[in-house]
Amino acid sequence: MARAQDSNAAKAHALVDAAIKMTDSDKAVKLLWQATDIDPSLEEPYVYLGMYYNSKQDAEDLAKVYQKLVKYQPNSVSAWINIGEAYMSFSPPKTTEALPYYRKAYELDSHSTMAALRMGEIMAQEGDRDQAIRYLHQAAGDPNYAAEAHKILTQMGAS
Description:
- By secondary structure, this protein is mainly alpha-helical.
- It folds into two domains: 1-56, no CATH class; 60-159, Alpha Horseshoe (Serine Threonine Protein Phosphatase 5, Tetratricopeptide repeat).
- The protein is built from nine helices and no strands.
- Helix 5 packs antiparallel against helix 6.
- It is elongated and about 55 Å long.
């Protein structure tokens, strides 16, 4: 069985390598999706698909990419966050859809300040003030998210 998995991983890597070198993005995307079918747990094709759909501002397909990844890598905190981010990139943001994905990421890693920031932001919008403040204070402890967390806390009058 391990040989079949190694073989599938090699095939998937070959498809990813071929896709990266292509100038025809439609064909490249097809190869990347094929790679996810051959070796669904290989993260690399999902990353490239995510970058592609993000560049096209295609939030719906972006969410699908990471939803497929979490099926095969359910403990990938970044994949759960990326699904949430995909829903947040809709115009207007689909916060109700995004929140469960941030919660799952936070459940997997309670030190995820990105998940805490987004949960705090969404809860502030939904009027769950106490929870919002709790998560935003956690996010404020991370230099990468402190400014955004403080901005939301200030808007809430809770800095």
